[in-house]
Write a structure and sequence with these properties.
By secondary structure, this protein is α+β, with helices and mostly antiparallel strands. It folds into 6 domains: about 130 residues, no CATH class; about 220 residues, no CATH class; about 160 residues, Sandwich (Immunoglobulin-like), CATH 2.60.40.150; about 140 residues, Tetracycline Repressor, domain 2, CATH 1.10.357; about 110 residues, Methane Monooxygenase Hydroxylase, Chain G, domain 1 (Up-down Bundle), CATH 1.20.58.1100; about 180 residues, Immunoglobulin-like. About 50% of the residues lie in helices and about 10% in strands. The protein has 36 helices and 16 strands. The chain has a 4-stranded antiparallel sheet with strand order 4-1-8-7, with no helix packed on it. The protein has a 4-stranded antiparallel sheet with strand order 3-2-5-6, with no helix packed on it. Strand 14 and strand 15 form a beta hairpin. Helix 15 runs antiparallel to helix 17, helix 20 runs antiparallel to helix 21 and helix 28 packs parallel to helix 30. The protein is elongated and about 160 Å long.
């Protein structure tokens, strides 16, 4: 395969002022570069390059996750529990003394023992269960528990009261002529009758304020209250609140009447004078007088038009009021079965205590404070009992705990807002001592927000207490935000969710700020959050810097740590953008990413500037490698900022940071060049030139080489050098190094395959096929890598257009590799030449007695076997190239066989025509092989023409000669001047008129740079015009632009002129006085297209016709092919025609 070593590079013709890649790669792999700077000794020593490229892959792998903006789905990789938050027992509520604990215990027991009202379905109704639960909470012994219960039982029972809010009524009965009523409510406490009412068959009568009571004793006037009158409505809204003292919770009832107001002096004013009524008897007489019109279902007689009408009543036993109170619609009832009423009334009822005989009440401790202490105690107990080590506890209280708190809250007359405030204060404080779920705390804030319209009713000390809890919680939250990365890592979805809830809690707290008379925050909370985040960023960075790259260390030792620091900063910025930024922006309206990026980018830039200045004088390969890796990360930080819409990197502290890294990058690229050669050398040394596996057809070294080139391309993309001029220098050098490495690899393959002994008689060499596949794979890989080495142009360029130096480099390398492939292909097919010639000769020597398919069968069988091997060994592109080469070999072999057999039978040529078509079908393979266009081009056309001409008669060959002359006229070839003529057929005289006008731009054939041209005019083919002789013009001396204006007539029949091959042939000669005339050019004009033949004669002379300009040319090979066919003919007509043309050829051969 020595011919492979003789290939010359075409790069020298493509790239100016640059030596050929092949010449530059002839040296050893470790030879010095043309760059005057010699590689310094350092980290990377000569070897096989494996370690270097492994390190390079690690560097590039870091950049894989830095393409584009990060996605939260990629960053959130863990759903494990969030890191534990810091807790401090001192941040909770004040610890109680033993005396205070005992008083709180008695307060809880008192609440349970003196409960009143109806227990709800979710509450614990068993008193012993509640008392036992309190014993567990306070940790008392059975004796202590029994003694405490006895003390509480001896205490005075509490004073109860009923809070009634009359909200509204709906669908009342219309009593006025206008279709409405003027309703008001009259309500009070109905004392017990002293003895239970016995059921009986008599008609049921309901109490009304107009009736007396059989219960003895005075009835205080404050037991009856009245609402305002709401005029002209059936759906009145009152929203009035009343408080009634209860003497006997078990027997007293709340009674409510609704009346329609009808006169100016009615029950409304009368009720205001009830202070004069001292007993039930007098009150009954008074009401009996003013409401007597209601006796007959509210129907008044003619003398009673100005009395109030009854609309309905309610009787609610106090013992049936739920412990937690209730907000409910009650259906209005009639006074008797004869009454007609309709509608509903909404009441809010709550049973409270106004006086409590407990130690805490005696010492002036409000129910608010008592509830806070009790809730704190219960919350701690419940947390320890249910989930002592969990940060996800949501404050779910057990049934006994919820019941005790409900009883105490109701008895202490705490509003819904006060309860919400208390639960927030206690839970938020407890969270700082034992972590709770932030969703639970957020729910408490939302519950407090629902009732915040009652905020004006909060006493000042309770408001101050709430403000203190807000301040404590915000301080705690800001402390956590300062250590955001520790307690809420971006990779932990659980921690990120906790952060989201914490921010929502802080944001929700801001909504309460305008309502406080005493502002709990000195500044806006989001400003405090931003300050905490900035401080936390600096603390995190300083901690990282001191750990990885302490300033007291020397520069080379700090470099590796600074690379890790920059990587950590980049990952942190990814987390800020992908996870934290959206939370802070949407919840507290803080641009956390910009705040963090600006701060960390400036800090990293300061460290990088200082370190590069220190290391520049100490540049070694190890330092260059570290600086190169550091620059890639810094460039990634810049590009990360630029990739965000609306951001630009010119304002960054890292802008221009590339300048001090340039010497390190240049040195590192030199190392890359040498390491790539060593890596390729090592790969080829261990290559066995066998396919790696059944799925691929190239060997291991090609995979290694393509991987190296891919890494180089990725590296350049990561480098993204921002300075266009410097990028062009770096990119040009890197592309040249890559081209040299590619050709260096092909040379190594050639040497490898040449050193292997070939198998005797092997027509298809598997090592050659592998080499061919390797080169093709590398051609694609190198081409793709070179296209990926484009750099930003200093001036605007078209999108996708490579810079000119890189384009020239890529084109030159591609041409070199294609030539390499062509050479290897030729060497592979050269082993099949002898066999192909043998089988073609077998076809030519086959007797006419056997069939054509039998004669061709050995050749087809041979091709089928060899192409099956090639198909299994070659990739598609190389298989196509080998098929093309084999096709050309076959065509040439057949042409040689035809040339060696002249003047044989027509069957001989018919057999080869059959062979040619069989080979076309074989190589086309129904569209799976070579395309028909390429098969029937080039040598195929020549072969097909010769076969066709061999089967033609002598006259048909002569006519083909002239047809080829006419076809030549339409093809663009090098011209030998122009000739202007006019032709016309005169039917009346049956003659052809040909006028030679002038010529121009004739070739100079004499020594003086001129010619003495004349024109020979003749008709052809001769057998169509046997009686016509040729004519010639006069000789025009010493000119290249002769003017003739000569007219010639040829007497010929029109039928002969209409033949397809009939033409007039113009031959321009240079007249020589002392030697043979020289040929200047020729042109042919078909007679079928001239006037008088193609169309009827209109009239006028030949000189009135438009002239035709013909381009003079020399005869082409396809014209000469017909002549060669005639040379093999022995008949007289063919020999005479050939003889006359030979004389013309002698003139052409004498042409200098």
């Amino acid at each position: 395969m020595t011919t492979l070593l003789e290939i010359k590079s075409s790069v020298l013709r493509q790239v100016q002022a640059r030596p050929s890649f092949r010449r530059r790669t002839e040296g050893e792999p470790g030879s010095a570069s043309a760059d005057p700077q010699e590689p310094a000794t350092g980290a990377w020593k000569p070897g096989d390059g494996v370690e270097f490229f492994a390190q390079m892959r690690l560097i590039l792998k870091k950049g894989e996750g830095r393409q584009g903006l990060p996605c939260p789905e990629v960053l959130l990789r863990s759903g494990s529990p969030a890191p534990a938050e810091p807790v401090d027992p001192n941040r909770g509520l004040r610890a109680l003394t033993q005396e205070e604990v005992e008083m709180l215990y008695e307060e809880a027991l008192y609440t349970v023992l003196y409960r009143a009202g109806t227990m709800g379905p979710d509450q614990v109704d068993d008193q012993e269960t509640l008392l036992g639960y309190l014993q567990q909470v306070f940790g008392t012994s059975p004796e202590e528990h029994a003694e405490a219960i006895e003390r509480v039982k001896k205490a005075k029972a509490p004073t109860y009261a009923l809070k009634v809010s009359v909200m509204r009524a709906k669908n009342l009965l219309a009593k006025d002529p206008n279709g409405f009523s003027d309703p008001y409510c009259m309500l009070g406490i109905l004392p017990a009758s002293g003895a239970p009412r016995e059921p009986g068959p008599h008609k049921e009568q309901r109490f009304s304020f107009r009736k007396g009571s059989k219960r003895g004793g005075p009835l205080p006037a404050k037991c009856i209250q009245v609402t305002e009158v709401k005029s002209s409505t059936l759906n009145p809204v009152w929203k009035e609140n009343f408080l009634f003292e209860i003497e006997d919770v078990s027997t007293d009832q709340l009674h409510l009447d609704i009346w329609d107001h009808d006169d100016d002096v009615s029950l409304v004013e009368a009720c205001r004078k009830l202070n004069e009524v001292i007993g039930l008897k007098g009150m009954s007489r008074y009401f009996k007088q003013i409401v007597k019109s209601a006796r007959a279902n509210g129907t008044a007689g003619p003398t009673e038009d100005h009395t109030d009408d009854f609309l309905g009543c309610l009787n609610i036993p106090i013992r049936e009021v739920p412990v937690a109170g209730e907000d409910r619609w009650f259906k209005l009832e009639p006074r008797s079965s004869a009454s007609r009423v309709q509608g509903d009334c909404q009441l809010v009822l709550k049973l409270i205590t106004t006086q409590r005989d407990t130690g805490m009440s005696q010492r002036g401790r409000s129910g608010f404070l008592s509830y806070m202490l009790l809730l704190s105690r219960l919350l701690q107990f419940e947390h320890r009992s249910q989930e002592p080590n969990s940060s996800g506890w949501r404050g779910e209280l057990s049934g006994p705990a919820a019941t005790v708190l409900c009883l105490h809250g109701a008895q202490s007359n705490l509003s819904a807002l006060q309860l919400a405030v208390l639960h927030w204060q206690v839970s938020s404080r407890h969270h700082q001592t034992c972590t709770l779920d932030y969703g639970y705390l957020l729910g408490l804030l939302e519950d407090m927000q629902v009732h915040w319209e009652e905020a004006s009713s909060l006493p000042q000390e309770q408001e101050e207490s709430l403000a203190d809890s807000f301040c404590a919680f915000s301080d705690f939250g800001l402390q956590l935000l300062r250590q955001l990365r520790d307690y809420f890592p971006a990779t932990n979805s659980t921690a990120v969710h906790r952060l989201e809830l914490l921010l929502k809690c802080l944001s929700k707290m801001q909504l309460f700020q305008p309502s406080f008379e005493i502002c709990p925050f000195e500044t806006e909370l989001n400003m405090d959050i931003a300050a905490a985040l900035k401080r936390g960023n600096r603390e995190w960075y300083d901690r990282l810097l001191n750990t990885k790259s302490p300033r007291e260390q020397p520069g080379p030792m700090r470099l590796a740590g600074l690379v890790e620091l920059a990587d950590a900063v980049y990952e942190d910025l990814q987390s800020c953008y992908g996870i934290y930024a959206s939370l802070f922006h949407s919840i507290v309206e803080i641009d956390f990413f910009t705040l963090t990026f600006r701060q960390l980018e400036r800090l990293v830039a300061e460290e990088a500037w200082v370190l590069t200045e220190e290391l520049s004088p100490k540049m070694t390969l190890e330092v260059a490698s570290g600086l190169f890796e550091l620059y890639l990360t810094l460039a990634d930080i810049q590009s990360f900022w630029s990739s965000i819409p609306g951001r630009e990197s010119r304002s960054l502290a890292l802008a221009g940071i590339h300048a001090p890294f340039l010497p390190a990058v240049k040195l590192w690229l030199q190392v890359l060049r040498d390491q790539a050669r060593w890596r390729l050398q090592g790969a080829v040394d261990v290559d066995t030139l066998e396919p790696m596996d059944a799925s691929c057809k190239h060997s291991s070294s090609a995979t290694t080489a393509s991987l190296c080139f891919s890494l180089i391309q990725e590296l350049w993309a990561r480098l993204a050098w921002p300075d266009p001029a410097q990028a062009q220098v770096l990119g040009t050098q890197l592309s040249q190094d890559l081209c040299e490495a590619t050709l260096f690899y092909t040379e190594l393959l050639r040497k490898k395959v040449d050193a292997q002994p070939g198998a005797a008689g092997e027509a298809v060499s598997e090592p050659l096929c592998v080499v061919l596949n390797n080169v093709e794979l590398l051609r694609k890989a190198a081409g793709q890598s070179l296209r990926g080495l484009a750099w930003p142009e200093a001036t605007s360029a078209l999108e996708g257009v490579l810079p000119r130096p890189l384009l020239s480099c890529a084109q030159a390398l591609d041409e070199d590799l294609r030539q390499e492939v062509h050479t290897v292909t030729a060497h592979l097919t050269s082993k099949m030449v002898a066999d192909i010639r043998k089988y073609v000769q077998h076809i030519s020597l086959s007797p006419d007695s056997i069939q054509n398919d039998e004669a061709v069968a050995p050749l087809m069988k041979y091709l089928d076997e060899k192409l099956a091997l090639l198909n299994a060994s070659l990739v598609k592109e190389n298989l196509s190239r080998v098929l093309e080469a084999l096709w050309e070999l076959l065509l040439q072999a057949i042409l040689q066989a035809l040339g060696a057999n002249l003047d044989v039978s027509a069957d001989f040529y018919g057999r080869f025509h059959f062979t040619l078509e069989a080979l076309v079908n074989f190589f086309h393979a129904e569209g799976q092989g070579l395309p028909l266009e390429s098969l029937r081009d080039g040598s195929y056309k020549r072969l097909e023409e010769e076969l066709r001409l061999h089967q033609c008669s002598t006259r048909e060959c002569i006519e083909q000669y002239y047809l080829d002359k006419l076809k030549q006229r339409c093809l663009e070839q090098k011209r030998s001047g122009r000739l202007s003529v006019r032709c016309h057929y005169e039917a009346a005289q049956q003659r052809l008129a040909v006028e030679v006008l002038h010529a121009a731009d004739l070739p100079p054939l004499d020594a003086n740079g001129l010619s003495d041209p004349f024109v020979i005019v003749e008709l052809g083919p001769p057998h169509l015009f046997p009686l016509v002789r040729s004519q010639r013009t006069q000789v025009k001396s010493r000119t290249l632009h002769p003017v003739y204006d000569e007219l010639f007539y040829f007497s010929v029949p029109a039928e002969a002129c209409r033949r397809r091959s009939a033409c007039v042939l113009f031959t321009v000669m240079d007249h020589d006085w002392l030697s043979t005339n020289d040929f200047a050019g020729e042109a042919a004009l078909g007679l079928g297209s001239i006037g008088g033949i193609a169309r009827p004669q209109v009239g006028g002379s030949v000189r009135a016709r438009q002239p035709v300009t013909l381009h003079l040319r020399r005869p082409r090979a396809q014209v000469k092919s017909a002549l060669r066919m005639l040379e093999g003919r022995t008949n007289k007509e063919a020999q005479e025609f050939v003889k006359r043309l030979k004389e013309l050829e002698k003139c052409m051969e004498a042409d200098p």
